[in-house]
Amino acid sequence: MDKTIFVSLRFEIMDFERIREDFPILRKEIEGKPIIYFDSACQSLRPKQVLEAMNRYYEDFPACAGRSIHKLATEVSIRIDEARGKLARFVNAEKPEEISFVRNCTEALNTVIFGVGLKKGDVVLATDREHNSVHVPLLKLKETTGIDYQIVPSRDDETFNLDKFSEIAAESRPRLVAMCHTSNVNGTTIPAKEVCKIAHENGALVLLDGAQYVPYGGVDIKDIDTDFYAFSAHKMCGPSGVGILTGKYDELSKIEPRTYGGHGISMATRKHADILPPPERFEAGLQNYSGIIGTGAAADYLSRIGRDWIVTHVNHLNRMATEQLLKIPDLKIIEPGNPDLRSGILAFNIKKRNPHDIAMILDNMENIMIRSGMHCSHSWFNDREIEGSARASFYLYNTKDEISLFADTLRRLQ
Ligand SMILES: Cc1ncc(COP(=O)(O)O)c(C=O)c1O
Questions:
Q1: In the chain, at which end, N or C, are there fewer CB atoms within 10 A of the end residue's CB?
Q2: How many other C-beta atoms are found inside a 10 Å radius of the C-beta of residue 273?
Q3: What are the residue ranges of CATH 3.40.640.10 in the chain?
Q4: Which pLDDT score, from 0 to 100, does residue 414 have?
Q5: Which overall architecture, per CATH, does domain 53-304 show?
Q6: How many Cα atoms are found within 13 Å in the side-chain-facing hemisphere of 235?
Q7: Does the beta carbon of 105 lie inside 6 Å of ligand 1?
Q8: How many angstroms is it from 133 CA to the middle of ligand 1?
Q9: How far apart, in whole angstroms, are the C-alpha atoms of residue 264 and residue 282?
Q10: Which pLDDT value is given to residue 12?
Q11: Which atom of ligand 1 lies nearest, measured to the CA of 105?
C-alpha cells in the first residue's frame, strides 16, 4: 500500500479522537458552540501532557536549576537536563549542549544576527518573505553597521527560487544566509539542505528560522547541515515564553551573547567576566523552568505522533479547504495555489472585504478563529501592495467537518 495512504488510514481510524481529547480547550464551548481553532501558525493549542508536565514543576519541585544545591533545586536541574536531551533528539542535534533555551524564536534569531560579528559591507541573503524577527534586525544592521542586506526574489508562484539564490550567492559571496525554513505568509518551504550546501560552497554561515517547520514533528539539523536553527515552543504544542537556539556547537560557541547576568558566566572580577560556553552562554538570568519542562513534553508528544502523520493530516485538510474555497466567487488564495506546497497555511483575500472583517465575522458566527493582517511580515505585503490577508492555519487537531463549516460560513459571507 502507498505509504501516505497507510499513514493517513492509521491516523483516521486509530488515533484522531484520542488526539482531540488531549486538548482540554477543544472540549469547551463559547456561546454554546465549539471552538474551531485555525490559528496554530500564530500559536498552537496545548495537550494535557504538556500542561501536566508544567504544573508538576510548580507543585513538586518549584525551585531554581543550576544554582542552589538542595534537593528541590537538584530535581529541577535534572528535569531541565532531561528537557534539553529531548529537544536535542527532536532536532537531531549532535549533543544536548547544542540546545539553548531562550525567550522565543525572535530572541534566538536576534542572538545570531547581532552576535555573529557582521561588519560593514558583509552580505546577508534572505528571502523576500522573512518574518520581522529576521527582516528588522537585518535592516537595523544595515542602518547601524552598513551590512549589505540582499533579498532573493521568489518565483512568480511565490515559491523559493533556488537557481536565483545560487546565482546571487556566487556573485555576492555572503557572510550569512538567514532564511525562514517554512514561511508564515504562504506556508512554502525552502529546500534547506540545498540552501546550506550552496551557502557553504560560497563561504556563508546559515541561520534558519524554523518557527513554522518544527511544529510538524521536529527537524534534522545534522542532515540539513545548518549552522544555526531557531524556533519557538508555542507553535509546537508547547508553552509560550520559550524559544530554542540550536546549531553546530563550534559556531554557537563563537556567538557573542546579547544578555549577560547570573548563570551565563563562570567567574567575574572587577576587571573581567568569563562567559560560559553554550548552552549557558545564552541562558543568563533565571529561566522559565516550567516552560522548558513543558517544551520537553511537547517534543515528546509530537515525536510520538510523528512527522509523517502530522504532515499527511494537515496536507489533507489544506487540500480539502483549498478545493472548497476555490469555488467561492471573489476569493483569492495567496500563491502558491497548490496546497501541497503550503504546509498547513491557507491565506486568502475576498474582494472588497477587509481581512480583519473576515476574521471577526468568522469568529462571531461560528467561533472560527483565524489570523488577519500582515502576519509580522509587512515587507512582503508592502512589496506587493496588498493590505494584508486572512490566514487559516490547520494543525493536528483540526477536522474535516471544521473545514466544511469554514467553507460554508465563508460562502454565507457572499
Ligand atoms: C516564520 C516565523 N519566524 C519567527 C516568528 C517569531 O516567533 P516568536 O514570536 O515566537 O518569537 C514567527 C512567529 O509567528 C514566525 O512565524
A1: N
A2: 11
A3: 53-304
A4: 73
A5: 3-Layer(aba) Sandwich (3.40)
A6: 26
A7: yes
A8: 7
A9: 7
A10: 53
A11: 11
Q: Does ligand 1 come within 6 angstroms of the Cβ of 136?
A: no
Residue located via cell numbers 511544529: 215
- Listed in order, the ranges of the chain carrying CATH 3.90.1150.10 are 3-44+306-412
**376 flagged as catalytic:** yes
Residues 154-164 pLDDT 10s: 999 999 999 99
For the stretch 195-215, pLDDT in tens is: 999 999 999 999 999 999 999
Contacts 24+ apart (CB under 8 A), 167-174: 168/125, 169/125, 169/198, 169/199, 169/201, 169/202, 169/204, 170/202, 172/123, 172/125, 172/148, 173/123, 173/202, 173/203, 173/204, 174/122, 174/123, 174/124, 174/125, 174/150, 174/199, 174/202, 174/203, 174/204
Interval between CA 274 and ligand 1 midpoint (Å): 32
Decide yes or no: CATH 3.90.78.10 for domain 3-44+306-412.
no
